[in-house]
Design a protein that fits this description.
It is a single chain. The protein has helices at 7-25, 205-208; strands at residues 40-44, 52-57, 76-80, 86-90, 97-106, 109-120, 123-131, 136-140, 153-156, 160-171, 182-193, 199-204, 230-235, 241-245, 250-254, 261-266, 273-274, 284-290, 293-298, 311-318, 323-330, 343-346, 352-355, 361-365, 371-376, 385-387. By secondary structure, the protein is mainly beta. The strands form six sheets. A five-stranded antiparallel β-sheet has the order 1-25-24-23-22, with no helix packed on it. A five-stranded mixed β-sheet has the order 17-21-20-19-18, with no helix packed on it. The two termini are 38 Å apart.
Length: 390
């Protein structure tokens, strides 16, 4: 049975736990994952983009938590006005969670999509859902015995879906201080035909990235070790996969047909030379927003290892010359540090809408980096989007 505790006790427990971790690893503390008592609007400039806020309540299956008690909250998908008034809500059956709630395009029409299932150690096991807002019209998993993970369900051209999965495997973990016959999570990026459920291609992190590239502060032991922690899949302009892996602090451009890594940004063995300012760690949601530009949410913290403030980062990629340069890096005026989750959405007017993950805020920045919208939440949302419905 889930333990329900007052929010004040939860805050005290979080402060004590995160403070102890930070004292060992870094002088900077992550932002408390418990925020306002309800959706609270702090900034709402008329210069911000129009639309409604799409987010999830409750504790996401993607949350990577210290061993601390947190207040219980009902998981739901919510569409709210920018003033915080909920205008649409979906609550899953008891025992299930929801996450990654957004609009996408399916068979030429706008739909609502989300992940639904249960949490397993910072990832999820469940299925991806497509809804017309009144009923569920399609559910999907990657097939071959794999379930859909919470982190990515992205509909792309050609009637395809990009889906993350985690699979426990037996592995020799001695190179990272673990047992010879240990257990770890392999991460799988699947490209699936939505109509038929047929797997078009599959990329296996274990086959292409050495486990010694992990930056996880955890020591392999009895529980399954997570050296990669894949948290987003998108497409580059040529149709290759852009894959973000939190626990290697790296972004990979992958040929989906051959599995070959075309280039790597960040991590222990980057192939792109990064100019000053292109710095990130434990990131989420890497995606192309132009022919040569990606955005990502730079968590900059794993909880135990905090390297700086979290930010919305845009980076110019010159793959031909193996070069990456900083376009901009927006931090929150409150100095937020999120130790898990988060996303960056580029809006039609050029603004950036930012979900701060475990730091329970949702914000919008204009092109100059000015904060034009900000709201505080009781608990963080895995991702947050500004859009319209229907």
């Amino acid at each position: 049975m889930k333990r329900v505790i007052p929010i004040s006790i939860a805050v005290s427990a979080v402060v004590a736990t995160l403070g102890a971790a930070a004292a060992v690893a870094s002088p900077m503390l992550p932002t408390l994952p418990v925020g306002a008592l309800s959706y609270t609007v702090n900034v709402n400039s008329p210069t911000g983009a129009p639309g409604d806020v799409f987010y999830t309540t409750g504790m996401s299956a993607a949350a990577v938590l210290p061993n601390i008690p947190l207040p219980a909250a009902q998981p739901s998908n919510v569409i709210a006005t920018k003033t915080g008034q909920a205008i649409w809500r979906y609550t899953p059956p008891n025992g299930q969670g929801v996450s990654n709630f957004r609009t996408q395009t399916y068979q030429g029409r706008k739909v609502l999509t989300w992940w639904q299932g249960t949490s397993v150690g910072g990832h999820g096991t469940g299925e991806d859902v497509i809804s017309d807002g009144r009923r569920i019209i399609r559910t999907l998993t990657p097939g071959d015995g794999l379930t859909s993970d919470v982190h990515e369900f992205r509909l792309v051209s050609g009637g395809r879906a990009l889906i993350t999965s985690y699979r426990p495997v037996t592995a020799d973990l001695r190179s990272i201080g673990g047992p010879a016959n240990g257990t770890m999570y392999d991460c799988i990026a699947s490209v699936v035909d939505v109509a038929s459920g047929r797997v078009i291609s599959r990329w296996d992190a274990r086959q292409h990235v050495p486990i010694t590239d992990t930056e996880s502060a955890k020591t392999p032991g009895d529980a399954a070790f997570d050296p990669f922690h894949m948290n987003s899949i998108a497409l580059d302009p040529a149709g290759n996969l852009i894959i973000s892996m939190r626990n290697t602090s790296a972004v990979y451009d992958v040929n989906p047909s051959t599995g070959v890594i075309n280039w790597q940004l960040g991590g222990k063995h980057p192939t792109l030379r990064a100019d000053a300012g292109v710095e990130f760690a434990f990131q989420h949601d890497a995606e192309f927003v132009g022919p040569n530009e990606i955005t990502l949410f730079n968590d900059n913290s794993s909880g135990a290892d905090t390297r700086g403030l979290s930010s919305a980062e845009a980076i110019h990629i010159d793959a031909a010359h193996h070069h990456a340069t900083l376009v901009h890096n927006f931090t929150h005026p409150a100095g937020l540090v999120s130790f898990a989750m988060g996303n960056v959405q580029t809006l039609p007017n050029g603004d950036e809408f930012v979900g701060w993950g475990m730091a329970p805020h949702i914000s919008e920045f204009d092109r100059a980096g000015r904060l034009v919208y900000d709201a505080s939440l009781p608990l963080g949302s895995y991702r947050a989007f500004l859009d319209t419905w229907p």
